[in-house]
Fold these 3 entries.
Entry 1:
Amino acid sequence: MAKLSQLKKQWIKDSYFIENSDELGPEFEVARELIRARIYAKMTQVDVATAMNTTQSVIARLESGRAIPTIKTIDRFARAVGMTFEVRLTPNGE
């Protein structure tokens, strides 16, 4: 199971990440939350994929920040790791 710090080291080496990290901020934030939730649940990508009735490669794409998941997919992921999905808007600077 990869740690977030290890993934960040990989992303920093990725030219796509370097060129698009500012524009992809929200996508990468979603990816980070998915990874955190999976790690908190002590599950592998295979475990989550099985719970969602999908493949490990789909989970890897979601966690890479390159795939933009639907709200329904995020909700399915959350339930697979034993969590609930919430949407929250906050004022700038908070």
Entry 2:
Amino acid sequence: IMTEKICVNDVLSTLNSMITMINYSIQQANNKTFRDELIASRNTLEDIQWQVYLLAKQKQYYVPAAPAGAADIEQVKNSIN
């Protein structure tokens, strides 16, 4: 049975996959016009993905990970430097 929760999470997952594929295509694009079109498409999909994410979060279909603590952030900063 396809519940609303399953559908929303499926759309969110699909959008995430599409954005990942477009990002890869942008990196490989050899034509500036084509690359610009890909970037515009990615930006549009990211806006849609954000709206679907907010809906999923509001309906508690998706629970994001807890924010990183100050110690975790500092550890990542130190490992980068």
Entry 3:
Amino acid sequence: LSIWPKDVDLKKTDLFYIDGLHEGQHVREQLELYKPFFKPGAILAFDDIFMNPGMASMWHDVENILDIDFKTTLPLHWTGFGILQIK
């Protein structure tokens, strides 16, 4: 049984929300998995980017994982919220 909607085309998706296991390596693996679907101009939002050293390291290094136009952090809560745009 597949719960994935059949009419979703990730290659046409404009916004991705990344909020997994809150471990830097896990997020890196997610980004590598979904990288083929990130079209130019797509926005990626991340939760808990400063929750632990692994997440902070991933956020600091995200430019080496993805080709991005800009990256910013928002102080919406103590663990951090980050937004970036794919180049």
